[in-house]
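Supplementary notes (optional reading)

For those who missed the lab, this is the record we used. Protein: Sulfotransferase. Length: 228 residues.
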Amino acid sequence: MLSVISEGEYKTEFSDEKVMNILKKTMDTYHDMPSRPNLVIDNNRAWCSKLQLLDYLYPDAKVICCVRDPVWVINSFERIIGRDPMLSSYLVPVEHRATLHQRVNYLLSPAGAFGFAYQALQEAFFGQFSSKLVLVDYDSLVTQPLSVMRLLEKELNVPAATYDMNNVRYTPPTAYDKALETPGLHEIAPKVEPQKHPLILPPDVVNRLAGGAFWRDRSMNPKSVRII
């Protein structure tokens, strides 16, 4: 739709006002905005690459970025993909599945599930719309879940809610994971707490990813992006 509006042969038919109306009504319809006018949650990782558009449509919107040390993110991907002895997960194209290094290289590439999200995060973090970001560090969330949620509520200016961190209930996206041939991809434990898993990445991969948690370095945050 954006390509038709901004680049297609009908580009001259769309005024700035009409473009905004089309995009906002599309969002409002998709998210059923009339029934939830003040709070909408959309978990698409592409928003970090669309902050300028988001600011244009919804100036007060925030993007919550759940971040974790890349070493452990890639370790989790490899652990989940490796559950299937046939290595049939669509997270990695078949021509890149033969070895761990091939799988990691693809995941880290701009086309990979991690690589795209990581590059988009960097673009948002260091870009001109960084004030729209709120980063939530995984380690903080799993060790101090209630404190993190209270800080997040305050940051988003939403009413305090009641949480049971020992009994998290949700509807698992089973169909989504099945379509990716990666069952359990979005599975979460009922209790919010640190999960201990062995490191299964070779030293060279770990070294390659070391230091990737740039948000933990204060000198890398000159714009004072909010980090919880």
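If you only remember one thing from this example: The chain has two domains: 1-40, 42-227.
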